[in-house]
Design a protein that fits this description.
Chain lengths: 207, 397
C-alpha cells in the first residue's frame, strides 16, 4: 500500500512546523534510537482554555511528519477538553488512511500533543500529576500498533495479562516466536512504559 | 516510471540495456523452442543455450560445463548451499558465514541451524570487512563450508577473497567455499579459478540484463545433492524449463559489460568519487559508511546524514523524480535498523539517516549534480523540522 495523496501533501508541505518561541507548554516524546522523535509546542488562551497556537518538530518519516501536521491542524482553536479527545485514529482518518506498517509512526505525534496538553494542565494547577496504575499501562498499550495490520495490540486482544507491583510491569503478549514484529512491539512497549519514573522494570513474556 | 527519472538504486536492479531487449526478442517469437535432440528446432535451441552458457562462463573464467543457468541469484545460492551441505553432511556439522552476508546466505544459515548444523557468524569491523584471521580462528575439524558475499550489498565493502582462499587451503581438510557475487559481477574482475571457490552465484539484472535469470558456477568435480527434482530440459540442477530468451539476454548483458570491464569500472569509480566529493561539499555532517576508495565496490556510496531520517529523505527525492535507497528502519518492512550498519557499530541515528546510492553506466555527472543539489535542499528542509538539529546550539547550525 502506498501513501495517500493527503499524506504526501502534509509530508511535503507540513502545517504548523517549526520551533515556537515562549510556548505555554511543550513535550518531547520518542527517541532517535526507537526511530523517531517529536516535539509539540502549544500556546493556550488562559481564560477560555483554547489552544491558540500549536507547532511541532519531527525527526521521523513521512507518516510521522504528516500526522504531526494534521493533528496540530485538528487541535488548533479547540478547547483543551476537546483537544484531549484527539487520537491517532482521528489523524489517520483525516489523512485518508496509512499503510498498516506505518500506523505506529503516527501514534507518536498524537501522543506528544496529549503530553503537551497534560504538561500545561499540571503546570497551571488544572490537574494533579496522575498516579501510575495498571490503568496507565493499559492506556499506554492502546498506543502500541501491531505493524502487520495497523491496529493496536489491545484491540487485537494480543495482551493476555498485565500486572504491576513494586515498580515491575509484567505483560504477557500473545505473539509467536516466528512473528517478525515481536521484537519491535516489545521494544515499543518498553519505550512507552520506561518513561514513567514509577516503572523500574518491564518484563514481557511470550508463549 | 518517467523516462527522465534519475535512478540511483542499481544495487537493487538495473535498467535493461536496449541491446539486451533486442537480443531476447527472437526467443519470444519465432525461436520459441526448447532444447531437444536430432530435430532442427531442438538443436537450434541447444546451440542457443550453449552460446549463452559459454559467454557467461568466459566472463567468470569458467568452463561452459561448469556454468548452470537458474531463475535468479537466490535460486543459484539455494541450489549451491543446500546442494553442498546435503552432499557433505556426513563429513561434519559446522558451517561458517558472517553477520553481514546477503540475506540469501543468512536465511540458508538459519535453515541449516534448524536442520541440526552449527553455524559460526564472523563479525565485521567498522568498515564492514570480515577478516581472514577470524575465519582462521573459526575453523574446526568438523567445518564443511564457508560462504561469503564478495561485495557487501549495503556498503560495498570488498571482502578479502585471496586471504580467505589461503586460510581454507591451508586447513587440514577440505572446506567447501561458496561466494555470492551478485554485487561483484561486472564491478570487479572475477575469476573462479583464482578465487578458489567451489560454487559462485551471479544475477543478470544487476548488470542491465533481464530479471528472472541468474547463473551458478559449480567447479568441475564438486558434488551437490539435488534440490529441485523434475525433468531435465536445460540444466540438471535447475530442472524444468528455463527461458532461452532470458539466457540470451543475460549473455548479451555480459558481452556489453565485459567488452571493456576495466573501462566500465573506471567510469563507475569516477562517478562515485565525484558523487561523494559533491555530497561532502554541499552537506554538512555527512559521513561515509564503509571503506573509502579501492576497498569498496566502484558503484556504491553509502552515507549517513546527521539529524534527519532516511525514509523522509527517500520520499522527498522520490517526489522529485529520484530513486535511491535508505537503511532506515522506517523504510523496512520489518521496521528494523539496517543489520549491516548495526553490525559495523553504527548507532540507530546513523542507520536511520543512511542513504545508499548505487550507480550504473547509464548515470552521468549531470544527474549526480541534480541529485546532490536536491538532496542539499531536502536536508536543509528536514533539518529545519528536526528536533535533533534544532537542539544544537545556534552557532553550530
Amino acid at each position: 500500500m502506498q501513501y495517500s495523496q493527503k499524506v504526501l501533501d502534509h509530508f511535503m508541505h507540513p502545517h504548523n512546523v517549526g520551533k515556537m518561541e515562549n510556548p505555554d507548554a511543550s513535550a518531547t516524546e520518542g527517541s532517535p534510537a526507537c526511530g523517531d522523535q517529536v516535539t509539540v509546542y502549544i500556546k493556550v488562551d488562559p481564560e477560555h482554555l483554547v489552544i491558540e497556537d500549536v507547532s511541532f518538530l519531527s525527526y521521523g518519516c513521512a507518516s510521522n511528519i504528516a500526522t504531526a501536521s494534521i493533528i496540530t491542524d485538528l487541535a488548533k482553536g479547540k478547547t483543551l477538553e476537546e483537544a484531549k479527545q484527539l487520537t491517532w485514529r482521528d489523524a489517520m482518518e483525516a489523512l485518508d488512511g496509512l499503510p498498516p506498517v506505518k500506523v505506529h509512526c503516527s501514534v507518536l505525534a498524537a501522543d506528544t500533543l496529549q503530553s503537551a496538553i497534560s504538561n500545561y494542565e499540571i503546570a497551571h494547577g488544572l490537574k494533579e500529576v496522575p498516579e501510575f496504575t495498571k490503568e496507565t499501562i493499559l492506556e499506554e498499550l492502546t498506543k502500541i500498533i501491531y505493524p502487520k495490520v495497523g491496529e493496536d495490540i489491545i484491540t487485537l486482544k494480543m495482551v493476555k495479562y498485565v500486572g504491576f507491583a513494586d515498580g515491575e510491569v509484567l505483560i504477557d503478549l500473545n505473539m509467536m516466536n516466528f512473528d517478525q514484529y515481536r521484537e519491535n512491539v516489545a521494544e515499543e512497549i518498553r519505550e512507552h512504559l520506561e518513561k514513567y519514573p514509577d516503572v523500574k522494570k518491564v518484563v514481557i513474556n511470550f508463549p | 516510471m518517467n523516462s527522465d527519472r534519475i535512478y540511483l538504486d542499481n544495487c537493487q536492479t538495473t535498467p535493461l540495456a536496449p541491446e539486451v531487449l533486442e537480443a531476447m526478442r527472437p526467443y519470444f517469437s519465432e525461436k520459441f523452442w526448447f532444447p531437444g535432440t536430432f530435430i532442427s528446432t531442438g538443436e537450434a535451441a541447444n546451440q542457443a543455450v550453449a552460446e549463452s552458457q559459454q559467454t557467461v562462463a568466459q566472463a567468470l573464467g569458467a568452463q561452459s560445463s561448469e556454468l548452470h543457468f537458474t531463475s535468479g541469484g537466490t535460486l543459484a545460492n539455494n541450489i549451491a548451499l543446500k546442494g553442498l551441505v546435503g552432499a557433505n553432511s556426513s563429513r561434519g556439522k559446522h558451517i561458517i558465514c558472517s553477520v553481514v552476508d546477503y540475506p540469501d546466505l543468512l536465511t540458508n544459515a538459519a535453515y541449516f541451524e534448524k536442520q541440526g548444523f552449527e553455524v559460526s557468524y564472523l563479525e565485521c569491523d567498522s568498515k564492514g570487512l570480515v577478516s581472514a584471521e577470524q575465519l582462521q580462528r573459526a575453523l574446526r575439524p568438523d567445518t564443511i563450508l564457508f560462504m561469503t558475499t564478495i561485495v557487501n550489498h549495503v556498503v560495498g565493502t570488498i571482502q578479502p577473497m585471496a586471504e580467505y582462499r589461503r586460510v581454507l587451503e591451508s586447513a587440514d581438510h577440505k572446506i567447501l567455499f561458496h561466494a555470492d557475487a551478485g554485487q561483484a559481477f561486472g564491478k570487479m574482475p572475477l575469476n573462479v579459478k583464482d578465487l578458489g571457490v567451489d560454487t559462485l552465484s551471479v544475477s543478470a539484472h544487476k548488470i542491465h540484463g533481464p530479471q528472472g535469470i541468474g547463473a551458478l558456477y559449480v567447479k568441475q568435480g564438486a558434488k551437490l545433492s539435488q534440490l529441485i527434482h523434475g525433468v531435465s530440459r536445460v540444466d540438471h540442477y535447475q530442472t524444468g524449463g528455463i527461458s532461452l530468451a532470458l539466457m540470451a539476454g543475460f549473455a548479451k548483458a555480459v558481452q556489453l559489460t565485459f567488452a571493456d570491464l576495466d573501462g566500465g569500472i573506471a567510469h563507475l569509480r569516477e562517478l562515485s568519487d565525484y558523487l561523494w566529493r559533491r555530497l561532502q561539499e554541499r552537506i554538512s555532517e555527512i559521513e561515509l559508511n564503509g571503506p573509502p576508495g579501492e576497498g569498496r565496490a566502484c558503484h556504491n556510496i553509502n552515507a549517513s546524514i546527521a539529524y534527519i531520517e532516511g525514509e523522509a529523505i527517500t520520499m522527498m527525492l522520490d517526489v522529485n523524480g529520484i530513486t535511491v535507497a535508505t537503511g532506515s528502519a522506517c523504510a523496512s518492512q520489518g521496521l528494523k535498523a539496517n543489520y549491516v550498519l548495526m553490525a559495523m557499530g553504527k548507532n540507530h541515528v546513523q542507520s536511520h539517516g543512511s542513504m545508499k546510492f548505487t550507480l550504473s553506466r547509464y548515470n552521468t555527472k549531470a544527474e549526480i549534480d541534480i541529485v546532490v543539489d536536491k538532496l542539499a535542499e531536502i536536508t536543509a528542509i528536514l533539518r529545519e523540522r528536526s528536533p535533533l538539529y534544532q537542539a544544537k546550539p545556534d552557532q553550530e547550525r
